[in-house]
Each structure stands twice: as C-alpha cells, then as structure tokens.
Please model this.
Amino acid sequence: MYLLKLIVRNAFRHRLRTALTVLGIVIAVLAFGLLQTVVGAWYVGVEASSSTRLVTRNAISLVFPLPLTYEQRIRQVEGVRIVSRTNWFGGVYIDKRNFFPQFAIDAEPYFQLYPEFRVPPEQLKAFLVDRKGCVVGRKLAQIYGWKLGDAIPLRGTIFPGNWEFVVRAIYEGADAKTDESQFFFHWMFLNETLKQSAPRRANQVGIYLIGIANAEAAAETSRRIDAMFRNSLAETLTETEKAFQLGFISMTEAIVVAIRIVSFVIIVIIMAVMANTMAMSARERLPEYATLKALGFGPQFVRVLVFGESLLIAGLGGALGIVATLPVVNMFGSVMAKLFPVFHVSTGTLALQVAAALVIGITAAIVPGARAARIQIVEGLRAIG
Amino acid sequence: MNDSAVPMVLIEGLTKSYRRGGQIVPVLTGINLTVAAGEFVALMGPSGSGKSTLLNLIAGIDKPTGGTLIVDGLDIATLSESELADWRARNVGFIFQFYNLLPVLSAYENVELPLMLTGLSGKARREHVLTALQMVDLTERMSHYPSELSGGQQQRVAIARAIITDPTIIVADEPTGDLDRVSAAEVLGLMDRLNRELGKTIIMVTHDQRAASQARRLVHLDKGVLLDNEMAEAVKRDS
Amino acid sequence: MAIPLYYVARNLGARKVTTALTADGLALVVYVFATVLMLDAGLRQTLVGTGQWDNVSVIRRGSDTEVQSGVEREHADIIESQPEVALGPQGERLISKETVVLISLNKRGSEKPSNVVIRGVDTMGLVVRPQVRIVEGRMFRPGSSEIIAGRSIGGRFTGAGIGERLRFGMRDWTVVGHFDAGKSGFDSEIWGDADQLMQAFRRTVYSSIVFHLADAGAFDAVKARLESDPRLQVEAKRESVYYAEQSEQLSQFIRYLGITLSVIFSAGAIIGAMITMYSSVASRTAEIGTLRALGFRRGSILWAFLLESLLLGAVGGVAGIAAASLMQWVSFSTTNFQTFSELAFSFTLTPGIALSALAFALTMGLVGGVLPAARAAQLNIVDALRAA
Model:
C-alpha cells in the first residue's frame, strides 16, 4: 500500500534519529519488563499458595511460638487432613550474605502437604532415617555446589550454637514458579538439642501448616481452630496460606509500590524522548504535508502518516525490547539468585510491555499528528522548518 | 593602504578538484589572476563554472589542490587550519547571499561577533560596533533580531559585520541574490562606498547584471577556466 | 571560549518544546536518583540517631537482633555490676534491662498487618535515652498495664492512639501517652513496663541490656571484660553502632536498586539529549559554517555545543532536585529486613546529595552532547555554508 510505503520510508529518512529513538524505547521496555518481574518475584510466595493450605501462628506475632500440645487438638478439628510443624531456623551459612530460608519440619506430613517439592523416593528415605539429615532445593545446591552426602554447617542465631547437617535429598520444583532455594531438616533434631541446651525453649512450634480437605471450608476451619485456643496462653491466628504470604508482602509494601511507580517513570521518560522525536520530524516536514494536502490528500491521511510512523518506531523498539527481556531477566536472575529464588517473566508482564510500546507510540503522535492535519496549505508551503 | 605595485591577491596555476565516489572531479584548472589593492572585482559565469569555489579559496575557507595563492603577501595555501582561521578573522570580511546572521543574536551582537576573537574589552568593542552600525545606517534597529528585520536590513547588518575588524579584503557571494530592487541598490551603494571611501578590496561573485555593473572589473569563468574578454562575450551570447 | 555564553543559552531557549521535553526526561532521572539517595540518607539518619555513642547495648552472642536474643537475670546483674556503668545524681546505676518482642498490628483503615516492636523498659529506660520525650499524655505507671507509643505508631496503627487499647498476653493494655524520639528508630516502637510485659509473655529472660558509660572511652575495656567472661555469652556494642548495623541490608538494597535504576534510566535520558543535540547541530549547519568562516576555531564550535548540552543537563538537574526536595514532606515506612520490624523514616536532602545529583545531570548532558558536538566541529566550512 502506498501509505505504508510512505510511512516506512519516512521513518528511516533520518536513520540516526530513528535508530536512537528505537534504542531508547528498547531500553525503556526492557527496564520496565525487568522491574515488573522484580515486583512479580516479590509475589512468588503468593503465587505458590494453595487454597487448601492454612497457616496457624501465634496471634501476637510470628516471633512467639505455639505449644507442641496444640498439634493433636488441631488434628481433631473437622476438615483438617494434615498437620505439620515448622520452625524458622534463620541460621547463617558461613557468611550473612548467603541467605536462604531454613525450616525445621515434621517431614512426612510436610512433604504430603507440599507435593510441589518433588523429592526422589530413595533420597526421602535416606533423609527420614538420618536425624541430622537435610533436604535442600536444587537451585540452592547449584549455587553452593552441594552434593548428596555433603556436611553443611550452620551457625544458629535464634537457636545459638554450631549446627551441622548432612545433605540427604535434593528436591526439584514441580514447575518454574516453585522455590528451589529452601533448606529443611528434622524438627525432632532441633527439639532434642533444645531439651539439652535450653529446655525452656523445647516443645515449641513456630507455625503449624494445615492441609484441609475442602477449599471452601477454609474460613470456617480457621475460625474453629482459633476459637479452640481463645483465652489461652497462646492465642492463635489461622489464615489461608495466601493471606499469610500477602501479609509478608504488605510489610514491605512501600518498597513494592515504589518499584512499581518507578517502572512507569521510565516509560514516561521515553515518552518525552519519543514525543520530541515526532515533534521534530513533523515540524521539519510541514511543507511536505502541505504539499500532500495541495495534491488532494485529506487531513486524515496526513494524520495517519504521523501516527503510522510513530507506531512503527515504537513497535520496532517494543518488539526488540521484549525479545531482549528474556535473556536479560535470566542473567539478572542468576546474579541475584540469592535474593530472588524464583525470577521469570510472566505473560502479564509481556502484555504490559506491549501496551507500553503502544502507549508510547500513540501519545507521541497526538500533538504532531494534529498539527500536521491542521496545517493550512499556504502556511505549510511557506514554512522553511 | 597598500603599495599598489604589490597585488592584494596573486594567483598562479591554481587548481581545485574534489573526489567524488572513486573519481576526481576538477572544478578549477590553471587559474591565473591578479587583483590589485582597492579593486572591486566581479566574478561571473554560468552555474558550475567554479566562481564560488574560486571565491572560497581566496577567502581561505577552502584549500587549493595545487598552485599558489598569495593574499596580501602571504601564501595562504601553506597555512594550517587554525592559522587560516586566525588569518580570516583579521583579514577577511564575508557577505553572503542569505546574510548568514545568527538568529539568536541581535543586530548589535551579530556585528560584535568577529570582535570576540580579538582581545578587545567590552567598551572598546562597543565603540567599533556603533561606528560600523552608523556606517550602514542601522543604529536605531541594533537591538532587533534578524527575524524582525527586512532582507535589505539584514544584509546591511552583515556588511557592518564584514567590516568590523577592518579586514583587507571583502568577499561577497551573491550579495543581492535575495533582495528586491530597492534593497539591492542600497546594498550595492554601500559596497561602493566601502571600496571608494575605505579603500577595501572587494571580490564579488554575482549573476546580477546591476551588481556586476557596480564593480569596476569583470572576470569571467566557465567550466573552471578563466576566460578573456572575447570568450566571455561569446559565452554570454550563447547562454 | 570565544563564542559568547548568551549565544549558547539563547539557542536552548529558541526551541522551547524540544528543550522542555529533553530537560523533563533528564529531570525525571535526576529525581529518581536524588530520591533514592535521600531515602537511604533518611534511613541512615533514623538509625544513627537511634543510639548514643556513649551507651552500650549488650545482647546474646550470635544473635543478630534484640528480638532473637536472651539474657538471663543473673547475667544481667553481672553486667549491672560493671564499674564503667554511669551513676545518676542519686547514685542510681544508669542501666536499663529490656525485653523486646514483636507484635503484629493492623494499619489503620486496612487489614494489612505489620510487626511492631514492643519494648519493655524499666524506670531507667527513658533516662538512658535522653532523645526520647513524652509529647502527649503521660508516661506509663510502673507495674500497670499501661503503654506508650512512638509518634510514628500512634497515628498509623489501630489501637495505638491515646486512650485506645491493645490486647495481647491475655490482657488489655491502654495507651496513655505518645513519645517523640527525635526521628529515630524508637519512634516506631511501643514501650511498656518490662516486668509486666515479661509476665504477660511468660518470658523469664531479658532481650538486651543497655547502660550509659560514665566515660565514653571506657567502652573497649568493658567490652573486652564482658565478652571474655565465661559465665556470660554476650556481645557488647556501642548503641549507635548496633543500630547502624541494623540498617545495613536495607540501606544496601535501597542504594543498589536505586543506583542501578538511575543508570538504566539515564541511558534513556541521554538518548533524548543526543537526539536533541544532533537535531540542534543539523538545523544550525549554516550558522556553524558562518562562525568558522568568521574565524572561530573547531574547538570553539565543539565547546559551544558541549556547553549547550551541559546547560540542558543543568536545567534538568535543577528541576529534578527541586522535585526531589518535595519528597521531604513524605514519610516512608517499611519492614526492616534485618529486624523484621516496622521502621518509619523519611527522605533527607543533604547538600552532598544535591551536588551528586547535579553532577549526575551534567554528566548525562555531557555524554549526550559529546558526539553531536564532535560532529559540529568536524563540519567542512564550504559544505556547511551550502546548507543556508
């Protein structure tokens, strides 16, 4: 089509300017995608939540434990299928910077509750018979070069002392969204050790993880559990796993919001650049638009020329930016593996990137397009630009 | 004023060619020309004859490919680029077809511009600028910008700028090319005064017959070669 | 430089829309850069102001924070008996034995919880922390279920306003006062009677011991003695150092993220500046030729255009800093990764930050303008004049 030919040729008239503009858009779309992915990584816990899992914690805060005696009583509650104990260990592996989550768990119910952590059966058996054994995620093992049989020393902070565990199993995540950077060991081992070293802290559980039969019963079951322990020494707060994870996110909400806002700032910056480019190009071509109108092409034709060019450039930049996003995210993810165990681009992010490129292309063309459409033939022919 | 025995411009065997693609395109071939101090010369010829190129070489904004080019006793073909720049600042005044004033500077500031290359103080510069503006009769409009001046007024500002450093030669490339009859006459009258009263050597490229008649000597070029008067007449008849 | 400055400046003003758009892009980048640095400075200021140089914090060895730490009563007595502990006017030892826990409170108007520090202090608690003053209501009565809340907490969390009640440890606690801790971390805390809180939480050990040094230089001696004492398993730090360390991770995170973002964004703004400057050179080709003909050197032309883009950078920089300075009215609160508790701080603009931001802006202008300026300087006089 003639129009298309004109648009393409016009876009590449000023090769340097077009190239720079496209580069700018590539950077913007890329940065935008990266930031949205960072925000997404924050929500990994929420994404991984199951609607049939509940979390029971001490109502005061996570810092307070629950008595071991609660376990039996929770198991009796109607609708509860599985109950597992979990204590956050928070130890240090050599250096404080080597952060990864460590949990003392009640192994059998735990892995029933989390089928997405796939442990090879023989390894699981080896773990169950070794009280000092540990199960680590595949990504974690990769980062630190751990193999089955390796001894892993941890310096306790909440539970002081030097602890040592032996890698008996390496789990794989069921899909790309599963966190493979976790470290599990036996709750029994923690408790035995505490009974010796700090008896007053023994027989205490950090949180209870509960599997229910029926997702619709979540609210009802939570209420029942909490009612059971009301007005006792350790009142409980039971909520869905999703609500629990969202609670964590809301704690650093300000940062997440800030990153979200900033990701849009880069789009605005590039919009200014793009608008500038289109304004300059359109201004220089006013005599040409006037000529076209003199020849009989209507104002809409001219406006479409401007929009077409803007969308072409934005589209090109957007496409290249999206293509570049995946390798950049992978690179970023491997460098920041300790901070973001799960880091991948969601389809939502890709859709937003496309939208961003479109918005950039359209907004940059509005004013120049209107100007071009409105230019009076005589005025335009006289303008030297 | 110079000793009239020593020419202002002495050109011998001057050649200029460009490389275009892989080929060498000759623009000027074997030019021999002498211009005495205080002369008012018009260079004429059809387009493509090389007259503008010759003017550029004399003005020191282009370098010859071969031959000698001596202006006011100095072989400018041997000067380095920065030496040429300094030489131009002191010795050459420019008048262009489209005035070439800086749009963001007022008339006063445009005239003052060449003086920024000298060490003069603001006060001293002011004196010179006012004198030049008076000469071209534009003192009332000195704070106006080029966009606020007519073509003729802009060219007069350009002329003031061309004489502000008291240069030895003035080169003009189609000075009346963009002007109406009245303004053109004004500008030519000014240039005439510069030549007669201030003794400035003026070399002008022009198509305009009236401008040519203002000059006191005509030099014709065609296809890069200087013509003598007979050939010039022949060319004129054929065009 | 021979070419006058007003020529450079006026050329920027001649193309208003282009200059405005380009400067806006630069300003936004500078705004992000400055704001991030301001946030980090605000964080640092808050935590540094939280401790005193001549106070000593003692926690259990190996614990990173007070919340994880436990110090037995007998051990606390040993610490109290150290000769370096300062004495008050009535001969009382200026030492505060504290219990620190986190409670989950909901922000007003939303269901979103946050962990807030509850610090049980004894009567010496306020004395060893002179920056803390009651600004509304009154101090809690020792032995009662009364508590006071930091200014930052009082307004933002349900139940923390004066007269309101919080329920934990099977008791209702009434908020009887608000305190101002000089914009330090204590502003994000709730304080109560240590013994009462320990009873309510069934704790028998303290979290930390804080005492004032009679002589600030005596720190090393008492630290060495406490840490080598076989009966104790403790770590002693100057209080200000302890709190400064609490912000390390968060501070690093903010800085790395912020600077990475600023660098990435600056690429966009630099491209904008480049496009603008290339266009500036292109539209003034005849002028450049004229200037060169008049005798101005290539160097002057280069400088004139470089200066133009530097000026563009400066305009963007000033605008960005001005916008960032408005952030000083905004307060920021988040959970500190290290302590797992709520911390409120603000954006602090220092002269150093303003200068860094300006330097950043000028650098962007320079990088964006160098290639176009080089192109302008390289133009051939005759070709340039032909563009007229």
Observations:
- Chain C touches chain A through 52 residues (CB under 8 Å).
- DSSP finds 13 helices and twelve strands in chain C.
- The longest strand of chain C covers residues 95-106.
- Chain C has a mean pLDDT of 90.
